[in-house]
Design brief:
Layout (H helix, E strand, L loop, with lengths): L24 E3 L5 E3 H9 L22 H13 L21 H16 L3 H17 L4 H7 L2 H13 L3 H17 L1 H8 L2 H12 L5 H8 L3 H6 L3 H9 L12 H12 L5 H13 L2 H7 L6 H17 L4 H7 L3 H9 L2 H14 L5 H13 L5 H9 L7 H12 L9 H15 L4 H14 L11 H9 L3 H13 L5 H23 L5 H9 L5 H17 L9 H18 L3 H12 L5 H8 L2 H11 L4 H16 L6 E8 L6 E7 L2 E6 L4 E7 L2 E8 L6 E6 L6 E5 L3 E8 L2 E9 L5 E5 L3 E5 L5 E5 L4 E4 L5 E7 L2 E6 L4 E5 L5 E5 L11 E8 L2 E7 L4 E7 L5 E7 L3 E6 L3 E6 L3 E6 L5 E6 L6 E6 L5 E6 L3 E7 L1
Antiparallel strand pairs: 1-2, 3-30, 4-5, 5-6, 6-7, 8-9, 9-10, 10-11, 12-13, 13-14, 14-15, 16-17, 17-18, 18-19, 20-21, 21-22, 22-23, 24-25, 25-26, 26-27, 28-29, 29-30
Helix pairs in contact: 3-4, 3-5, 3-6, 4-7, 6-7, 6-8, 7-8, 7-10, 9-10, 10-13, 12-13, 12-15, 13-16, 16-18, 16-19, 19-22, 21-22, 21-23, 22-23, 22-24, 23-24, 23-28, 24-29, 25-26, 25-31, 28-29, 28-30, 29-31, 30-31, 30-32, 33-34
Length: 932
């Protein structure tokens, strides 16, 4: 009782936890006394040891009140006036009390314990008591100043290095963060020694997640983040709820988001990509999305930056973001953001409207337009007028899409300003970045995207051309990736996509009477491949769309700006897809008289390329048909010119001929096969083969184009394989009969034997005779159907699968029936073409292969021995060295060519592009004709 009468209470009267005079003291089995409420809270938090001695407590219930101590305290209070007490009674734990010099002195003593004590437990207790002082908030700036001194900071760091008590570590981190955010000197002290920072990071990675706040305040280099592999821990914090952390000056989740935003800006793409993949693959991205709603603007902006990088790294995650993100807080951030942050917000919003469903994109656009307390469109318009040139196209693209949510109006300042900026950027050759951004933006405005957000305009154009394998493949992936729903839903999506495409194309092409075409024409001249590619696709798309738009008088502008350019691309493009897309663009000009007139000038330049696509593209077929009709009124546009001929009379008659790629194969009556290489106007003999002992009557190539077959009167069929410029015999089939007019499918061969009927052999050796009652003169094989022309002038179709025989033309039962025979028979484009000779003359007939109805019958002046058919012409090889050229569609004779003087044209063949016609004659000459 020696302290009775003093104003400061004896320390035995004060609870070591609350630092207040005891009201209900209890003495534990360890001999230490505490305030009942305080020690009860200690135990309720899961602690099982004494706070001072750290000895284990074996009793679950607290003992009775220490009445001896309570009476001593009461006696002391009676001798001490109430108004002079420096440490009045604390009836409620944690209630702040007025500051006194005593508490300052006690704090100093506690801080001294922290800095000087060699006993860890005493230093840990000092940390907890300092935290209590701070939480009660009755010290103001004085405690702030006392805790900011370097020795104190170092004392806290020693605790971080040595303590294993989670509560102590959390209290230490809390205090350093609270003091550090107000005093930069604390941060300087902590960052002066690298090991201090490493220690804090290490604690964070071990699960002390509150340490992220202190790490954020320390601002370590991004290299340290990556070297110390902090990303996974940051992602763990992002996924937690706010109420799982101690309340601090900065929320741990916010600090984690801000640090992640710093990490993704690092130039080490490999390490950053790994972080992004971890973020996207887990649920952390949902935590980042929730941060868009943060009250703290910096956290919202950081979330935008992270999500934008995630979308760029893995476009598929945009669907999660678009579905869960609240955009109103993001839009609210726009006004207070700096220029860089504003552009990031615009980029983020632009990426969100690249979903693979048009209806979803429209929904997001409506949210962007209507959310927030201010007009998004007016804000973007003002920003568009001040942003950097390479940023303008992105801003303009978003503004234009918002404007098009309604049906295009006659006037719209938003639309006018947006399109003006896009055109200006396309023309800005001084800023390649702006040109590239404008070209990319235009490509995206078409409005169709893959599940990963890539524009589908290129693949969509290829689909319209007919090269739609890539598009169908993409669509299958869409269905697997996210394009679910029934057929009706898919139809509605397609309808919405078409409507959007129509509106967008309409406003672009009609702006300032087609000014966009001038800009695209200039962009196509750029020396930067990205600009050329973007302008090429956008120009082709807009030209294609003009077929479906009302005539507003911009067709002439489009022709002046782009026709010659696309003709040049079509002629020179090495890439098949580029060639096909330019063909689609050119096809738009044939739909109006002026366009057809202008494109006809270039007919010779593009006809060869069209032939390359005629088998795969209806667009090419349509254009060739139009050009063919035009050519009939302009015969000078077409030219058949003999390029080269070779005399092979020493080998007898040229009986068969075939073209394959850049090679010509000829079969001769002495059993010789010759291989010619053709390039330009040079025909070079590369190989001669005499493995057949008698006349080579037939040469044929499989539809796949990789195998050659030959048939001969030596009663064999030979299979030839290719090896660079040479061929060699791979297999010999002994068919025990003369082979005439050999035709080959994948598993069988068909030919005319020496006797009646048609011989059909399978490669495994089986053989059968079809149509044995007829003497067959010529054959044609198409899609499993065998057509035969006979000596009695009859024509039959045999279904090889079912064996069904159908008579197309009946024979003539006369004594001189053999004088009235079918000499030539071919099937092309669903029609059967036949030429018959009789005493009366030569008859040319065309039949419908589906209905067997007669389409046309004409008389020819010459006797025909061979025939070749192209998409535009029919070639008749006749006696007396004559070749007649007829228009296939109009069936009018174009010209007659003189092959020789006293010979017959025995065989004819066209190359795959229909640019080269090769003939073989009875006097042993091989001739090459150019078709142009």
């Amino acid at each position: 009782m020696e302290d009775i009468g003093n104003h400061t209470p004896p320390k035995d009267f004060v609870c070591p936890i609350t630092t207040r005079i005891f009201n209900d003291p209890v003495t534990l089995e360890t001999g230490q006394t505490y305030e009942r409420k305080a020690i009860q809270q200690w135990i309720d938090r899961g602690n099982t040891t004494c706070p001072i001695t750290h000895q284990k407590l074996h009793k679950n219930q607290l003992p009775k009140t220490n009445y001896v101590l309570k009476r001593l305290i009461a006696s002391w209070k009676e001798l001490t006036p109430t108004n002079e007490l420096q440490y009045p009674e604390n009836k409620h734990v944690h209630v702040p009390q007025p500051r006194t010099d005593g508490t300052v002195n006690e704090l100093r003593l506690v801080i001294t314990d922290l800095c000087t004590s060699q006993v860890l437990k005493k230093a840990e207790l000092a940390v907890l008591r300092i935290e209590r002082f701070w939480q009660e908030g009755n010290m103001g700036m004085e405690i702030q100043n006392m805790l900011s001194k370097p020795p104190v900071v170092n004392g806290f760091v020693e605790i971080l290095f040595n303590s294993v008590d989670t509560r102590v570590l959390k209290a230490t981190i809390f205090l350093l963060s609270e003091v550090g955010i107000e005093n930069s000197g604390v941060i300087s002290t902590l960052t002066r020694v690298d090991s201090d920072v490493e220690c804090i990071v290490s604690l964070f990675k071990k699960g002390l997640f509150e340490a992220v706040v202190l790490i954020y305040l320390l601002r370590p280099s991004i290299t340290i983040f990556l070297q110390m592999d902090m990303a996974n821990s940051l992602l763990s914090v992002v996924q937690k709820r706010e109420d799982e952390f101690v309340k601090m000056c900065v929320k741990p989740k916010a600090a984690s988001v801000l640090l992640l935003a710093q990490i993704i800006e690092n130039e080490d793409d490999g390490a950053v990509s790994e972080v992004i993949r971890s973020l996207v693959s887990g649920k952390a991205i949902e935590g980042i999305i929730r941060s868009l709603e943060s009250e703290w603007k910096e956290e919202r902006i950081a979330s935008v930056r992270i999500l934008l990088r995630c979308i760029h790294e893995d476009g598929k995650c945009r669907h999660v973001v678009a579905d869960k993100a609240e955009l109103a807080p993001v839009l609210e951030s726009f006004l207070d953001a700096n220029d860089r942050e504003r552009f990031e917000i615009v980029q983020f919003l632009s990426e969100l409207v690249k979903l693979n469903r048009r209806t979803f994109n429209d929904q997001v656009l409506n949210i962007i337009k209507d959310e927030g307390t201010f007009s998004t469109m007016h804000t973007l318009l003002i920003y568009l007028q001040t942003c950097l040139p390479d940023q303008c196209p992105i801003v303009a693209g978003l503004l234009l899409q918002l404007d098009l949510l309604a049906e295009p109006r006659k006037m719209s300042i938003f639309r006018e300003e947006a399109i003006d900026n896009l055109i200006s950027c396309l023309k800005n050759s001084d800023s390649p970045a702006a040109q590239i951004a404008a070209a990319d933006t235009l490509s995206a405005l078409q409005g169709r995207f893959s599940y990963s957000g890539k524009p589908l305009v290129r693949k969509f154009l290829l689909k319209h051309v007919g090269l739609d394998k890539t598009y169908r493949s993409s669509m299958r992936k869409e269905q697997l990736g996210g394009m679910s729903g029934d057929i009706q839903e898919t139809k509605e999506e397609e309808k919405a996509a078409q409507e959007w495409e129509r509106k967008m194309a309409f406003v672009l092409v009609n702006h300032e009477s087609g000014l966009i075409f001038e800009a695209l024409s200039e962009g196509l001249k750029s020396r930067y491949a990205e600009t050329c590619s973007g302008c090429f696709i956008s120009a082709a798309w807009l030209l294609h769309m003009m077929i479906f738009l009302p005539d507003t008088g911009v067709q002439e502008t489009s022709r002046v700006c782009l026709l010659k350019r696309f003709v040049s691309i079509f002629k020179s493009a090495k890439d098949t897809e580029d060639k096909a897309i330019s063909m689609l663009a050119l096809s738009s000009f044939i739909h109006d008289p002026d366009g057809l007139r202008d494109i006809t000038i270039y007919m010779k330049d593009i006809r060869k390329g069209l032939r390359e696509f005629k088998k795969s593209s209806t667009v090419a077929v349509e254009m060739l048909k139009v050009f063919s009709q035009e050519s009939e009124s302009s015969p000078e546009l077409w030219n058949h010119k003999e390029l080269v001929q070779e005399d092979c009379s020493v080998n007898g008659v040229v009986l068969s001929i075939v073209c394959l790629k850049d090679k010509i194969f000829s079969g001769h009556s002495d059993g010789m096969i010759k291989i010619w290489a053709y390039k330009g106007s040079v025909l070079r003999l590369t190989q001669e083969i005499r493995e057949h002992t008698k006349a080579v009557t037939s040469l044929t190539v499989l539809p796949s184009g990789d195998t050659l077959y030959s048939g001969s009167h030596d009663k064999t069929i030979r299979k030839w394989s290719f090896n660079q410029e040479t061929i060699h015999c791979e297999e010999v089939y002994d068919v025990k009969d003369h082979v005439n007019n050999l035709l080959v499918a994948n598993s069988i061969s068909c030919f005319i034997p020496q006797g009646a009927g048609i011989k059909v052999n399978s490669w495994n050796g089986a053989s059968k005779l079809l149509n044995p009652s007829k003497d067959v003169k010529c054959l044609a094989l198409v899609n499993g159907r065998l057509y035969s022309g006979c000596l009695d002038n009859s024509i039959q179709e045999i279904n090889l699968a079912s064996g069904t025989l159908t008579s197309i033309q009946s024979g003539m039962r006369k004594l001189l029936a053999k004088g009235n025979q079918v000499n030539v028979l071919q099937v092309y484009d669903g029609l059967i073409y036949s030429v018959s000779s009789s005493i009366e003359g030569t008859t040319f007939k065309i039949w419908n292969a589906s209905t067997y109805g007669l389409v046309e019958s004409l008389s020819l002046t010459s006797e025909v021995r061979s025939m070749a058919i192209s998409s535009e012409f029919i070639y008749f090889g006749c006696k007396l060295g004559i070749m007649e050229v007829w228009h296939r569609n109009k069936l009018t004779r174009k010209e007659t060519l003189q092959i020789g003087t006293n010979c017959k044209v025995m065989c004819m063949a066209l190359d795959s592009n229909e640019d080269v016609l090769v003939t073989g004659t009875s006097d042993g000459r091989v001739q090459v004709w150019g078709v142009s």
